[in-house]
Write a structure and sequence with these properties.
Structural class of chain A: mainly alpha
Shape of chain B: globular
Low-confidence stretches of chain A: 290-294
Strand content of chain B: under 5%
Order of helices and strands of chain A: HHHHEEHHHHHHH
Strand order of the largest sheet of chain B: 1-2
CATH architecture of chain A: Orthogonal Bundle
Radius of gyration of chain B: 20 Å
Oligomer: heterotrimer
Largest sheet of chain A: 2 strands, antiparallel
Largest sheet of chain B: 2 strands, antiparallel
Radius of gyration of chain A: 19 Å
Shape of chain A: globular
CATH class of chain A: Mainly Alpha
CATH topology of chain A: ABC transporter involved in vitamin B12 uptake, BtuC
Mean pLDDT of chain A: 88
Mean pLDDT of chain B: 86
Structural class of chain B: mainly alpha
Chains: A mainly alpha, B mainly alpha, C alpha/beta
Largest interface: A-B, 54 and 48 residues
Chain lengths: 294, 324, 256
């Protein structure tokens, strides 16, 4: 293989790993929208919290990376209960703009609170997998990046079975289709809200814990995460988990290629360029279904 | 309490006298910011409040207006007050193209699409160094002048210019809500398919609203740049995008007084909270969230329970709750 | 001149033909009913006439003008008003504002005229209010003018829908199952209203499930089954048509 081809494949592999991060972030976002019809602007903050909780659990409690990551994910998932209780559940019958602003308030609260408590300077999470190299022919990936991809794929699979096979999953699907109808047939809407937020926040936190060791973490990283999430979710279709998977991987690969061959600066904007093209072609995204009237 | 016919004139008199009550130039600066943000928020309110779509890209049009006057001044000498018209046309033109592309889409997708267009304009401004001077921005922007007779230099002068435009545009919004055009805006917001069945071209109505809103945002930017004498891409950043939305919704969407009050609250509260140091943004976010939770119709709804201010979003009784 | 003329109108969804080669005409001041069992293609036909669905083939002429495939607002601007199967109002506006919005079609002055309070603007706003109150009066809703639409009872909301349609001063009114969910008393009131609308010179096309309403008010009835017109004629003729009886057999008695 010539060097050009190797470089291209390497770029695509890096893109797929970044893309899996986007998938993890976007899945929670799309779940909250699909089931509860909420656009959660604070979603990226749970990614940020996942990374910082991992950092502090290993630093202050002396836990190893894996335990710290799991602990952080569980902790942030529980925070999802609190967030839902105070910022979303009470507003469920208000106009969508009200809910959006409430989530924006939560996002500002968490970013600025994070800056206050964690400090604005960037931090590194140390992971035993960060420096281990896996060579696949001429291409290389760190063990950490393989971990990101593997855990991401596993989580999606688990989520898929949860939604398809469990009673709770069925309730969530019923709520997604028609919340009032679901309530009338005995679905506990309040529990659906709670579980959806726990899953969404947990997934975002897990993404933070996984990606943390590959990049610096700082308290304002949440707005980056939520913007990526939005691009992926709109690209794939609001509320579609398959869409989030395809959309996330696509975005990761395209960004890697644009960054590698054109300019790193424009790689940030290319996602928006893609959704503009896709939405003009398919207003509901690649895998979206038409929005319910009313 | 009913809104007397003297309320609005009285408020305008207060606004005219306000800067004379203090010699503090910093307070004058805050007053200018308040008025410019009021104009910006009133323009976004046409989109959020009247046609009921959420646009995240509004700061981009503010930026386009600001850069238009800055670049005109840099390359073609002093454009004078006519620069405002060029800025309005430029921002409106961008609004026409972006609106034409995106207004066939609605709801969350439209919001994200405008976020996308806004971000692309922001990124382009950052990287197109030849024209915009990139992240450094353009400085030493000449003051607004009226054909050599008069130049706007002090904060008070800019305040009166902005106040005049806010009052004028506020009146235009008021007139809009009492016109056939305004009724078609509200009809589109409330029920687009019913509006179409009455002969209203939904897409054209939304596009008209979007272009007017973006052109006015351009005017606000065209005053903002010469007032500060400097403009950087940051005026189009996520920070500003979100700030304008906060002003409109926290103040009260669909009303005229709401966005003006929202801008006052935004500028005023952030200023008052300076004393709290690092806690400033945390407290601000907390207050904002509380206000949204307890006053979903905006701060203006405290007053609106008793008085009705032009064509606003009426307080809706809660929908019947799903049984649990 | 005929009001509406429908010629070989057809709508296919993939391989499924929802409406097949349907022809009929509505004369001026005529009330035409379209009936048929569920899935007969009534709603598809209605949507094609109202401009919310494009026909696969065939033509629709309104007062001699070809309106086939026009958008809903274009059809409306030519003087065709419609109601919706599921109640469709401006819920958070007052009943009066609902109807005022509906005067859009027949008025001309806009934003600029309102800014300068021109004489034309003031004259037209007076007209808007008069037309709106007229429409509310006609539908016996004048006493509820300042109630929010969502505060009205179900029957009142359905009457408000008709008031909205009438305020646009249509030459042809399309009613999509107006009696759905109404009790017999409300249904009777509706029949009276439809007659009064015709007496004002408006043609009416009525897609309806309730036989009592159709038989009581229509001059002529078109029967659809599986997208095909199987009968057309005066209500009594159609009710005795063996084909129609066969189609309705075991469902809803024609004379019900």
């Amino acid at each position: 293989m010539d060097i050009e081809t190797i470089l291209l494949i390497q770029q695509i592999m890096n893109g797929l790993v970044n893309g899996m991060t986007y998938v993890l972030i976007a899945t929670g976002l799309t779940l909250v929208f699909g089931v509860l019809h909420i656009i959660n602007f604070a979603h990226g903050e749970f990614y940020m919290l996942g990374a910082f909780f991992t950092f502090f659990a290993s630093k202050l409690l002396g836990l190893d990376y894996v335990t710290a990551g799991i602990l952080a994910t569980v902790a942030v998932a529980s925070l999802g209960i609190v967030a839902n209780r105070f910022f979303f559940w009470p507003l469920r019958r208000e106009h969508e703009f009200t809910l959006l602003l409430s989530s924006l308030g939560l996002a500002l609260l968490l970013t600025n609170g994070g800056e206050l408590i964690f400090g604005a300077d960037p931090k590194y999470i140390s992971s035993p997998f960060a420096d281990g190299i896996v060579a696949m022919g001429p291409m290389i990936l760190t063990q950490q990046r393989i971990l990101i991809f593997g855990v991401g794929a596993l989580m999606l699979l688990l989520l898929y079975f949860f939604i398809q096979k469990t009673t709770m999953g069925k309730m969530m699907r019923a709520t997604a289709q028609d919340a009032e109808g679901a309530a009338l047939t005995g679905v506990d809407i309040r529990r659906v809200y709670t579980v959806t937020f726990v899953l969404a926040c947990g997934l975002a936190a897990l993404a933070g814990a996984l990606v943390g060791p590959t990049a610096m973490i700082y308290p304002t990283v949440g707005s980056w995460a939520v913007l990526k999430g939005f691009i992926v979710v709109v690209l794939g279709g609001l509320g579609s988990i398959v869409g989030a998977l395809i959309g996330g991987l696509t975005l990761g690969v395209v960004e890697a290629l644009v960054g590698g061959y054109i300019s790193l600066g424009f790689a940030q904007a290319v996602g928006f360029a893609i959704i503009i093209v896709v939405l003009l072609w398919r207003p509901n995204g690649l895998f979206g279904v038409a929005r319910r009237a009313g | 309490m009913t809104m007397s016919r003297f309320t609005v004139p009285a408020l305008i008199v207060v606004a005219v006298v306000l800067p004379l009550a203090t010699g503090n130039t910093y307070l004058h600066h805050l007053l200018v910011l308040w008025m410019l943000f009021s104009l910006l928020a009133l323009s976004l309110n046409i989109i959020i409040g009247y046609i009921g779509e959420l646009s995240f890209g509004h700061a981009a049009f503010f930026g386009i207006g600001a850069y238009t006057t800055a670049i005109l001044g840099m390359h073609f000498g002093l454009p004078g007050i006519f620069g405002l018209f060029v800025a309005a046309a430029m921002a409106g033109l961008f609004g026409l193209v972006i609106g034409y592309a995106s207004l066939r889409i609605e709801g969350p997708q439209f919001a994200i699409l405008t976020l996308g267009f806004g971000s692309i304009i922001y990124t382009t401004t950052n990287y197109w160094v030849d024209v915009t001077r990139g992240p450094m921005g353009i400085s030493n922007i000449a003051p607004l002048g009226v054909g050599g007779f008069f130049e706007f230099t002090t904060a008070i002068e800019y305040y009166y210019l902005a106040l005049f435009l806010v009052a004028g545009f506020g009146y235009c919004c008021h007139a809009l809500m009492q016109s056939r055009t305004g009724r078609s805006f509200i009809a589109v917001r409330e029920n687009a398919s019913l509006a179409a069945s009455l002969g209203i071209n939904v897409f054209r109505t939304k596009l008209l609203a979007f272009v007017v809103a973006t052109a006015v945002a351009g005017v606000a930017g065209a005053i903002f740049a010469p007032y500060l004498t400097v403009v950087t891409p940051e005026v189009m950043s996520l920070h500003y995008m979100v700030a304008i939305i906060i002003m409109v919704i926290v103040g009260g969407r669909g009303t005229i007084a709401g966005p003006i009050l929202g801008a006052l609250i935004y500028v005023g509260i952030l200023e008052l909270l300076r004393a709290t140091g690092p806690l400033r943004m945390v407290i601000f976010a907390g207050l904002m969230t509380l206000s949204v939770i307890y006053l979903p119709g905006g701060l203006i709804s405290i007053l609106k329970r008793k008085i009705h201010i032009g064509g606003g979003v009426t307080d809706q009784p809660p929908k019947p709750e799903a049984k649990q | 001149m005929t009001s509406l003329s429908v010629n070989t109108l057809t709508k296919k969804f993939g391989g499924l033909t929802a409406v097949s080669d349907v022809d009929f005409e509505i004369g001026p001041g005529e009330i035409l009913g379209i009936i048929g069992p569920n899935g007969a293609g009534k709603t598809t036909l209605f949507n094609m006439l109202a401009g919310s669905m494009e026909p696969t083939s065939g033509t629709v002429y309104f007062r001699g003008e070809n309106i086939t495939g026009l958008r809903a607002d274009e059809v409306a601007r030519r003087g065709v008003a419609r109601t919706f199967q599921i109640t469709s109002l401006f819920p958070s506006l007052s009943a009066l504002d609902n109807v005022r919005s509906a005067t859009y079609r027949t008025k001309r002055t806009g934003w600029i005229a309102s800014m300068f309070r021109t004489a034309a603007y003031r004259a037209e706003e007076d007209e808007v209010n008069r037309d709106a109150m007229d429409a509310l009066d006609f539908c016996e809703l004048a006493h509820h003018a300042h109630y929010n639409a969502q505060e009205l009872s179900y029957g009142e909301q359905r009457r408000l829908e008709i008031a909205i349609a009438l305020a646009s001063k249509p030459a042809l009114l399309l009613l999509d199952e107006p009696a759905a969910g109404m009790n017999p008393e409300e249904g009777q009131r509706l029949v009276g209203m439809i007659r009064n609308i015709r007496d004002r010179g408006t043609s009416v096309l009525l897609v309806e499930h309730h036989m009592r309403v159709v038989m009581g008010v229509c001059d002529r009835v078109v029967v659809l089954d599986h997208g095909v017109k199987i009968a057309e004629g005066a209500p009594t003729e159609v009710a005795n048509d063996p084909e129609v009886i066969r189609v309705y057999l075991g469902r809803e008695a024609v004379s019900a």
